[in-house]
Write a structure and sequence with these properties.
Blueprint: H1 2-36, H2 44-55, H3 59-83, H4 90-128, H5 131-137, H6 142-181, H7 185-195, H8 198-224, H9 229-263
Length: 265
């Protein structure tokens, strides 16, 4: 038994060392991003191209998902409100749920799966095929061209996609409410905007920016540090999605606690 415990100690020590080494590498990666983002040259063309890929090419999936979320949540909430004779509060309930939580969270999770995996696989493939090394030899800063441009694009586009998701989800909810309660569009959206506060909008935008930065930086970090050939590319893409989703839920919880504290003042 004593020999087994002695054999396990080095293994446990290695895992602990690997964990803290990974945290240090991630911190240095994030710190390097903030150092590079303010230094010329600025890759505006690459940033615009990445914004198009992240934003415009994600619209079909975002539109379908947001529309379905609005309809499903409305149909699920109607029976509960009807039991208390409060079906007229449905537009207010939907607007609060969508703007405060569902819009940012659903958009971020979809983007983490679609955009995060794409960034991780793209940069990972460039890493294992030594294209990044070739860029360094050719006097090009690969970190600024590949990482900074993509992180800025996700940070800028995710909030815009969240606003679009909110709108599409509310339109889906309106169609459901109109079909069942015969509520006009004017009445529906008056109730929607009456239920939303300025703090709700600010917190939604703040979360969206935070989620966008997380998706971009995690995807770039996993791709930039991938290895072991094509197998490493697949692992980088998968790890980018899993880690980004995990951090998004953590950030959602932390921001929610902060907003509730501000709201309670």
């Amino acid at each position: 038994m004593a020999e087994e415990s002695e054999d396990r100690k080095p293994l446990l020590s290695k895992k602990i060392d690997k964990f803290f080494t990974g945290l240090a590498d991630a911190w240095n990666f994030v710190r390097r991003f903030f150092q590079e983002v303010f230094m010329p040259p600025y890759e505006f063309k690459e940033i615009i191209q990445q914004c198009y890929r992240i934003g415009v090419e994600s619209l079909p999936l975002i539109s379908l998902t947001g529309f379905i979320v609005g309809i499903v949540f409305t149909n699920q909430s109607r029976p509960s409100l009807s039991e208390f004779g409060a079906a007229s509060w449905l537009p207010s309930l939907i607007s609060i749920a969508v703007v405060r939580a569902m819009g940012p969270l659903v958009t971020a999770l979809i983007a983490a799966g679609k955009v995060g995996s794409s960034i991780g696989a793209e940069i990972g493939s460039m890493k294992v095929t030594e294209q990044i090394d070739a860029m360094e030899v050719s006097a090009t800063n690969p970190f600024k061209f590949l990482v900074v441009s993509r992180v800025l694009a996700t940070t800028l586009m995710i909030p815009l996609l969240v606003m679009y998701t909110d709108f599409v989800a509310l339109m889906g909810s309106f169609l459901s409410v109109n079909a069942n309660e015969m509520v006009s569009m004017t009445t529906f959206f008056v109730q929607v905007f009456e239920a939303i506060t300025f703090l709700d909008i600010i917190s939604s935008v703040f979360k969206s920016v935070l989620f966008g930065f997380t998706i971009g930086i995690v995807g770039c970090y996993k791709g930039y540090n991938s290895s072991k050939g094509t197998e490493g590319v697949g692992r980088a893409a998968n790890a980018a999605v899993v880690m980004a989703m995990f951090l998004i839920f953590i950030e959602e919880l932390l921001v929610l606690q902060l907003v509730n504290a501000i709201r309670g003042m």
